[in-house]
Design goal:
Length: 345
């Protein structure tokens, strides 16, 4: 029985709600949602699925035993990213959660935007206290309204959402100063004496790649250096794509004395191609992933404080709600290493 004042907008949708909206029995709704064809006409199956989507119904696989309570802990949904980029975020969240004695469940959402929405619906069914999502967004992502709706439903059911991504969605968010990091890297490389640059960027519509690239271009402009469009290579956001793009850049015969890759995984691809080709060109990255400890030459990069990012996110999740969505911007700093020696005058 519902408590006084409780409505469909303030509690999770139930199987009975779905059945009522679809105009079928609870048994029929259950069979349709569980994928059973036994005794379910196609027209009724469609009605049930449409009703479930309208109500934001998520099959509850864990909370049956705890009534309307929530399972203690954090569910971290990791949107498809290169492993070397995802690992420091995951490690940071796990470390921050362990300090608070919170269990962590990690879910990989895949690379398609629709996968992230599905992962949120699945997470809702397990009813965690805190739902955290990490990964970039794209300017052409048509699933954002559906994602926001799913997250708002989860919060209406009593959960807390914190995003580790770009700002802009109506939820508490911890974000990186991507544009400033790119800007600072450009100024640093210019101060070291480099003048002929190329950028190994990521997917055309990715916000992280766009901001880091734009910041780098702005920093070069402040240093009196103009970089033309043919020196900014667009491709996938991973090591193998960067390896291929570096080969394409050099085959075109464009004079380059420094390459900025917008994440460290891509910078490793650049370094590997240069090693295989026997070329010496300065290389810089962004993130300061732990894998950099094992490469030669050591990579100049923008260091991000991963544990601080995770700690800020969990502090927001466990603290009181604000009057509205809050955003904390985390700033990194450039670390100069062997891959960008000062240019001899």
């Amino acid at each position: 029985m519902s408590t006084m004042g409780e409505s469909a907008s303030t509690r999770a949708a139930r199987l009975s709600d779905v059945a009522r909206l679809a105009g079928v029995s609870a048994a029929t709704a259950s069979r349709a949602l569980n994928g059973s064809d036994r005794g379910v006409r196609e027209v009724n199956r469609v009605k049930v699925l449409e009703a479930a989507k309208t109500l934001g119904y998520a099959t509850n696989v864990a909370a049956q035993a705890v009534a309307r309570g929530r399972n203690r802990g954090v569910t971290l949904v990791v949107k498809g990213m290169p492993d070397d980029y995802a690992n420091p975020i995951i490690a940071g969240v796990v470390t921050a959660a362990q300090r608070r004695r919170l269990p962590v469940t990690i879910t990989s959402a895949g690379t398609d935007p629709a996968d992230l929405v599905e992962s949120v619906h699945n997470a809702r069914g397990h009813r965690p206290e805190f739902l955290m999502i990490t990964g970039g967004r794209a300017t052409d992502d048509a699933t954002i309204p559906e994602l926001v709706d799913a997250l708002e439903r989860y919060e209406a059911e009593g959960g807390r959402v914190v995003l580790i991504t770009q700002p802009g969605l109506p939820f508490d968010t911890v974000a990186y100063e991507n544009r400033k990091g790119g800007y600072d890297m450009a100024r640093t490389l210019a101060d070291l004496g480099y003048r002929d640059f190329a950028v190994i960027s990521g997917m055309k519509h990715g916000l992280t790649q766009r901001d880091r690239t734009d910041g780098f271009v702005d920093g070069l402009a402040e240093s009196g250096i103009r970089i033309t469009a043919d020196r900014i290579l667009i491709g996938e956001f991973n090591r193998d794509a960067a390896y291929a793009m570096t080969g394409d850049l050099l085959r075109r015969g464009i004079p380059v004395d420094a390459i900025f890759a917008v994440n460290d995984a891509m910078a490793l691809g650049v370094l590997t191609f240069l090693r295989d080709a026997g070329r010496r060109i300065a290389v810089a990255g962004f993130d300061d992933i732990k894998a950099l400890r094992d490469i030669t030459p050591s990579l100049t990069t923008v260091h991000l404080p991963w544990e601080q990012v995770a700690d800020e996110a969990l502090t927001m999740a466990m603290g009181p709600r604000g009057d509205g969505p809050r955003t904390i911007m985390i700033e990194g700093h450039v670390v100069v290493r062997e891959s960008t020696p000062r240019v001899a005058q």
